[in-house]
Amino acid sequence: MSNGATFDAVEPGDDLPAITVELARDYVKAHASEIGMAFPRFTDDEGARKEGLPGMIAPGNMTLALLARELLAWAPGGRVLRLGTTFRGLALAGGTIQLLGTVTEKDDARRTVECDVWMETAEGDRCVIGTATVQLP
Questions:
Q1: Cα separations (Å) of 70 from 1, 24, 117?
Q2: Residue 102: inside a domain, yes or no?
Q3: Tell me: the pLDDT tens digits for 24-58?
Q4: Rounded to whole angstroms, what are the CA distances from 72 to 9, 44, 67, 85, 137?
Q5: For residue 112, what are the domain limits?
Q6: How many domains is the chain built from?
Q7: Which of 22, 37, 63, 88 could form a disulfide with 32 if both were Cys (CB 3.0 to 4.6 A apart)?
Q8: Torsion of CA 30, 31, 33, 38, to 10 degrees
Q9: Per the domain annotation, does 53 fall within a domain?
Q10: Which residues pair with 20 in a beta bridge?
């Protein structure tokens, strides 16, 4: 039995397992610093408030990477061929988010699936939404 999703086993309508992530301030700050984006909005609550934000936020590329992590955790050995997102809200540092998704289409010729993916805040707001194409084993 497989330890993850395989092309033959998935069907449109299948949900990806939810992943809960704590966006600890140190985690967000370290990510931003490591990628050369040590801007106040990502590293300091007071600096973020000076920019009109409620506090530190997770960088967009961090949320994109977390969604890719969800896809790869669901389908080890798979390949994310495309991942596009729209940012609809803020992923606040210090909060908890959930990474969620659903299979929407299956392409037999390419052995790929299309998925809707999204990031939800603890309040249930979808702060990031997207679509992905994943080639499954």
A1: 20, 18, 9
A2: yes
A3: 999 999 999 999 999 999 999 999 999 999 999 99
A4: 16, 31, 9, 16, 12
A5: 15-24+59-135
A6: 1
A7: 37
A8: -110
A9: no
A10: 98
pLDDT at residue 58, as a whole number: 97
pLDDT tens by residue, 71-128: 999 999 999 999 999 999 999 999 999 999 999 999 999 999 999 999 999 999 999 9
**55 Rama sector, left if φ>0, alpha if ψ -120 to 50, beta otherwise:** left
Closest CA to 75 of 130, 10, 20: 10
Q: Within 1-137, where are the H helices? A: 25-34, 40-43, 45-50, 60-74
Let me know if 90 is exposed, middle or buried by CB neighbors in 10 A (0-12, 13-18, 19+).
Answer: buried
Q: Is residue 80 situated within a structural domain? A: yes
CATH number at residue 75: 3.10.129.10
Q: For 9, phi and psi rounded to 5 degrees?
A: -90, -20
Angle formed by the axes of helices 25-34 and 60-74, to 10°?
100
Q: Judge whether residue 2 has pLDDT over 70.
A: no
